[in-house]
């Protein structure tokens, strides 16, 4: 999960860089196509059929994940890397809520308190004008990041359910093919731009880091409780702030850092409801 966090942080930085040249849905299309190629090669090497078993849930995983991906990429092009990542990583809150509904995991006071603390942190990061004055962050981009986090929380729960029926790489492939088919019309008719050689390099690097992150994420969710696995992934927030400072010269202000701190506190509160990890001896399949 830590490996996945680092890979996704680098991927997000690459997306932010290439967003200056290419439209959001074209980046989504390129990423999902590359991810599909890599995943099919890995499935073939392992001798696993790409068809899968729970087709309805696999499609749901792909559709929800692709929508979350598009919203996150939209936000990354418009707000600082660390802020976008922190807002997106409120997902464990929604993981706990959706797991309570779909997987019948118990919801208690720590989930409620963690939700309130997390949302307070998001407000401090977004710094809306009516509360903080000044410009604040682009409200549309903040809304997209929040929506992406809600959908990502639902995806974690769906992936946890899919471990009962499908190989982790088949789950990754579902995001690839649904995302590629769904994003293609928007990419073609939303201002398709021929990438420069530099943009091609960035897109290829996005595909590679995405594959590393998706495989690490999916395997960890097959082995760990949903809330605990996603909580470990919060290390991505630290990576994102560091990358933002180093490559984009975005120095977070005090409100952003305090908000990120509250989001991390919410993870600790959610951790109170999760028993110590009992890691499986191997990933199913």
UniProtKB/TrEMBL annotation:
Organism: Rubricoccus marinus
Keyword Lipid metabolism carried by entry: no
Protein name, entry field: EamA domain-containing protein
Entry-linked Pfam families: EamA
Domain of life: Bacteria
Location in or out of the cell: Membrane
GO cellular component, one term: membrane
PANTHER family associated with the record: ACYL-MALONYL CONDENSING ENZYME-RELATED, SOLUTE CARRIER FAMILY 35 MEMBER G1
Residues of the EamA domain: 2-125, 142-270
Lipid bilayer topology: Multi-pass membrane protein
Database matches in Gene3D superfamilies: 1.10.3730.20
């Amino acid at each position: 999960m830590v490996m996945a966090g680092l890979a996704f942080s680098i991927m997000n930085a690459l997306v932010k860089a290439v967003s200056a040249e290419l439209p959001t849905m074209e980046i989504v299309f390129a990423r999902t196509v590359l991810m599909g190629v890599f995943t099919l090669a890995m499935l073939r090497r392992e001798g696993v059929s790409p068809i899968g078993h729970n087709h309805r849930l696999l499609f749901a995983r792909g559709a929800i994940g692709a929508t979350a991906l598009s919203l996150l990429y939209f936000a990354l092009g418009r707000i600082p890397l660390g802020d976008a990542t922190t807002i997106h990583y409120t997902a464990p809150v929604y993981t706990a809520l959706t797991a309570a509904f779909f997987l019948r995991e118990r919801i208690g006071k720590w989930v409620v308190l963690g939700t309130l603390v997390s949302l307070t942190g998001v407000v401090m990061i977004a710094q809306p004008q009516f509360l903080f004055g000044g410009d604040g962050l682009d409200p549309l981009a903040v809304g997209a990041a929040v929506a992406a986090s809600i959908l990502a929380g639902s995806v974690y729960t769906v992936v946890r359910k899919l471990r009962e029926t499908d190989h982790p790489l088949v789950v990754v492939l579902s995001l690839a093919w649904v995302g590629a088919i769904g994003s293609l019309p928007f990419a073609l008719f939303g201002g398709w731009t021929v990438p420069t050689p530099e943009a091609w390099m960035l897109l290829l690097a996005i595909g590679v880091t995405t594959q590393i992150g998706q495989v690490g994420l999916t395997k960890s969710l097959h082995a760990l409780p949903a809330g605990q696995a996603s909580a470990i992934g919060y290390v991505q927030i630290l990576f994102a702030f560091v990358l933002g400072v180093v490559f984009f010269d975005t120095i977070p202000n005090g409100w952003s850092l305090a908000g990120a701190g509250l989001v991390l506190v919410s993870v600790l509160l959610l951790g109170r409801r999760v028993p110590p990890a009992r890691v499986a001896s191997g990933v199913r399949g």
